[in-house]
Amino acid sequence: MGPELLVALVLGLVVGSFLNVVIWRVPRGESVVSPPSACPSCGHPVRRRDNVPVLSWLALRGRCRDCANPISVRYPLVETGTALLFVGVVARLGVGWPVPAYLYLAAVGLALALIDIDVHRLPNALVLPCYPVLLGLLALASANPGGGADWGALGRAALAGGGLFAFYGLLVVVYPRGMGLGDVKLAGVLGLALGWLGWGSLVVGAFAAFLIGGVFSVVLLASGRANRKTAIPFGPWMVLGASIGIAVGEPVWSAYLGILG
User: Fold this and answer.
1) Considering the entire predicted model, what is its pTM?
2) Average pLDDT in the 34-48 region?
3) Nearest Cα to Cα of residue 121 among 206, 230, 234
4) I need a labelling partner for 55 at 20 to 30 A (CA). Which of 12, 114, 152, 255 fits?
5) Is residue 99 a contact partner of residue 93, using CB atoms and an 8 Å limit?
6) Do residues 14 and 53 lie in contact, with contact meaning Cβ atoms separated by under 8 Å?
């Protein structure tokens, strides 16, 4: 593993530890800064030596040091998942100005996906700040200090974000039970990130969300674990679809056009 991937791995573990706090507190309207992290069972503050990503959970054998109650395996999984996403972003984009935008999206996207699974809601407190932050970071990537600027990518990102936002908004109007306004707001964010990379990333990322989400819903219906009235969060599939679009959208789209041609 190269040094840049190692840095991404460590950074992802640290950010993943913070995301655990975000995922738990934001839906409850609590501050992510204070009070310090504590055991949800006994309320004892987590010691610094017990707050090392993944390693502390393993050392404690998944139990609180004070009350011995189980600590959810989700904590190390979120930390590991964030680390792998960060490594994937750097492996996909290399070291350059676009990386901060997509690391930010990876972190927020993972948090939103898990929150949506937990409470079937995409909090404005996380979604809305993504617009100015992501636009600013993508503008920096387009400016490409020290290299050639590519403002066309930023314009394409704005068009893609607006277009995907409008598309999801139309779906809500046509079939309001199918998804919520949170999905519409998230669509605009994902459209920005996908569009900056290219139209192929946008098309593949948007299509993958509906394809995978649809297959998952059919499996649930066929297995009797859900019915037509069961609310199934769509945010996780939007995030997963966008991840696929970012990772392989351009080559997949090029291959598809090649087949048509």
Assistant:
1) 0.94
2) 85
3) 234
4) 114
5) yes
6) yes
